[in-house]
Specification:
The complex is a heterodimer of chains A (491) and B (117). Chain A has 20 helices and two strands. By secondary structure, chain A is mainly alpha-helical. Chain A has a domain of 216 residues. Chain B has a single domain, classed as Orthogonal Bundle (Helix Hairpins), CATH 1.10.287.3510. Chain B is mainly α. Chain B has four helices and no strands. In chain B, helix 1 packs antiparallel against helix 2 and helix 2 packs antiparallel against helix 3. The chains are: A mainly alpha (491), B mainly alpha (117). Chains A and B meet through helix 5 and helix 6 of A and helix 2 and helix 3 of B.
Chain lengths: 491, 117
């Protein structure tokens, strides 16, 4: 059982070069699919184990922590590992057909190499209990994401990747500076060890500036407003599969890393006490939710619309987390989980549209509901979940965040969350109306429904959105356990 | 506080700001990467300075030495240098592709071309 902790990261890391050696064609796809499914099984086992037996730890190379690198899994990162591997296990089968239609045939095995590296990097970020190791995995996943984005057909994919490379590297370097400053004062890199030693030195300005650098760096990677500027173009011009995968996982893992640093390493009292960080995060997120939701309404490309909406959703997660109460963090984490499900579903549906239609422009999608009813029905379900309609997953997390705000007596925050959802109604409705209530363009209509290999992954996520909206026992209890652990009340 | 005693950290701050400013202010994509490199190099120097102890020898056990420099930050930064090299290579490769696609590496001209269609 112990070995799974390490294997879950090592497996995709080993499968990546294997894909490079394989001949082009279906073989790399088969390897990638098998890898992600195996990792998903491992993640399920681990999550089960963590929920039953508490925190798991694995010393890499048998060097005991804090000297060696430690993989440490509690309810919080077990949930993140689960969601990342779930999305990968659903997206990879979809990738087979979709990516073959979007990039040139000789690049296909390279795509899977990068995809698996990115997957390994994200899992590593979620698993590790060592801050420098977190930086290394952050860079592994970022570097492969830059290349994945640049594979897009439009030449603007190149500039989007370049812009992301610049901002991403600055963010990661900020994080590195912060780690250096913490190491200079405490002499350790292990998260649990840092958490023990920091209280003695927390008055020092070095620690304070290290904290500021780390929060700024991770905030950039998580696309917290106003440092989200890399995100819309990157999601829009990347190949459909890449958009679906990174939209559902990359920012979530960065939010996780931020939460980990805020609550485990520094502790809630320092994080929200030493600096007016709570106020800053809440204000920025509130502005972010409104500004980016309003921007989303005006977009003419469905992918860009969803990309702006992603920034707004990160805002909700940060609002939940920044409240600093068990209920608030539970809401933020549940939203992290649910948003991966809904954005995964929506971007995959757009991937199917791209496969048949060759475009995701809003005008080009007129009347597409009639020719691709299954795809667009799943899109509607994902959209309802994004808005937060009852009986979908999105409702649960927003409801929790509203409750947490009311619990603190911050009614204005509850109004913000509801207001943001109302704007979501407008932009989702715009897409639904175009797809279902407009007559298709005149002329012979040869559009067909997407093939089953694309439909099945889309519908798995669509049904998951409904499932986690109706049966909340599981997702809520995991998130709640994670939140209590974070605030020091749990095991 | 004696300013001279923190000479290397002043160098770090200067390089960091110079590099960061170059990234923000320059419109030429290659110059931006140069700025990014300077920015990253400043962090390397910071880590190397952290590990050094005045009068400390290289961390190899020998007769007669008592004080050793801390090797850990130096090893860490080897990793970060590798990451920096990979980032630079990838950035330059993207610039080459951008030049093939747009015929220029100036940011404002690229924006002009993109907004025209």
């Amino acid at each position: 059982m112990d070995q799974i902790l390490a294997l879950i990261v090592v497996l995709p890391l080993l499968a990546a070069p294997l894909c490079l050696l394989l001949p082009n064609g279906r073989a790399p796809w088969v390897v990638a699919t098998a890898t992600t499914w195996l990792v998903f099984c491992g993640a399920c086992l681990l999550l089960n184990d963590v929920l039953a037996n508490g925190t798991q730890s694995y010393a890499l190379g048998d060097w005991p922590p804090p000297i060696g690198i430690e993989y440490r899994l509690d309810a919080l990162n077990a949930l993140v590992v689960f969601i990342v591997s779930l999305i990968a296990a659903v997206v990879t089968p979809f990738a087979g057909r979709s990516i073959a239609s979007e990039i040139s045939a000789k690049q296909i095995n390279l795509f899977y190499v990068l995809y698996l590296l990115c997957f390994a990097g994200l899992l590593g970020m979620a698993m590790t209990g060592d801050v420098f190791n977190l930086f290394v995995f952050l860079e592994i996943s970022s570097l492969s994401t830059y290349v994945l984005i640049s594979l897009g057909r439009d030449r603007r994919a190149l500039t989007a990747a370049y812009q992301y490379l610049m901002m991403g590297t600055i963010g990661a370097t900020f994080f590195l500076i912060g780690i250096g400053l913490l190491y200079a004062t405490t002499g350790t890199l292990n998260m649990a060890d840092l958490a023990q030693r920091l209280p003695e030195v927390e008055q020092q300005r070095t620690v304070l500036s290290g904290f500021a650098f780390i929060v700024a760096g991770l905030g950039l990677k998580a696309a917290v407003f106003p440092v989200h500027l890399w995100l819309p173009n990157a999601y829009t011009f990347a190949p459909s599969v890449v958009s679906a995968f990174i939209a559902a996982t990359a920012t979530k893992v960065a939010v996780y890393a931020l939460v980990r640093v805020l609550f485990t390493v520094f502790g809630v009292n320092y994080s929200f006490g030493a600096l007016p960080l709570q106020f800053v995060l809440l204000t920025l997120s509130v502005i972010g939710v409104f500004a980016t939701s309003l921007l989303a309404i005006r977009q003419n490309d469905a992918k860009k619309l969803l990309a702006y909406s992603s920034v707004a959703q990160v805002g909700y997660m940060i609002i939940g987390v920044a409240m600093g109460t068990v209920l608030g963090i539970t809401g933020g984490l549940t939203h992290l989980f649910n948003h991966a499900l809904m954005k995964g579903c929506l971007f995959l549906a757009l991937g199917a549209v791209m496969y048949r239609l060759g475009s995701t422009g809003v005008t080009a999608m007129r009347g597409i509901g009639y020719s691709m009813p299954w795809t667009m029905s799943a899109f509607v379900i994902g959209g309802l979940s994004l808005i937060g309609v009852p009986l979908t997953a999105g409702f649960i997390s927003k409801w929790l965040i509203v409750q947490a705000a009311l619990e603190l007596g911050w009614w204005w925050l509850a109004i913000v969350v509801l207001g943001g959802s109302l704007i979501a109604v407008i932009y989702i409705w715009r897409l639904v109306e175009t797809a279902w209530f407009r007559a298709p363009d005149a002329g012979p209509n040869q559009l067909k429904e997407a093939p089953l290999s694309l439909l099945i992954p889309i519908w798995i996520l669509a049904l998951a959105n409904i499932w986690f909206g109706v049966d909340t026992r599981w997702s809520l209890s995991v998130a709640e356990q994670a939140a209590t652990t974070l605030l020091g009340g749990g095991p | 506080m004696d300013i001279g005693s923190h000479f290397n950290y002043w160098v770090v701050i200067f390089l960091m700001m110079a590099g960061f400013y170059t990234v923000i202010s320059r419109g030429n994509l290659v110059k931006k990467i140069v700025g990014l490199n300077i920015f990253q190099t400043s962090v390397f120097i910071m880590y190397i300075s952290l590990g050094y102890i005045e009068g400390g020898a290289a961390p190899i056990l020998t007769e007669g030495t008592e004080v050793y420099a801390n090797p850990l930050p130096h090893v860490l930064i080897l990793t970060a240098i590798v990451v920096g090299v990979a980032t630079t290579a990838l950035g330059l490769a993207l610039v080459v592709r951008i030049r093939e696609a747009y015929g220029t590496v100036e940011e404002d001209e690229i924006h002009k071309q993109d907004s025209s269609f």
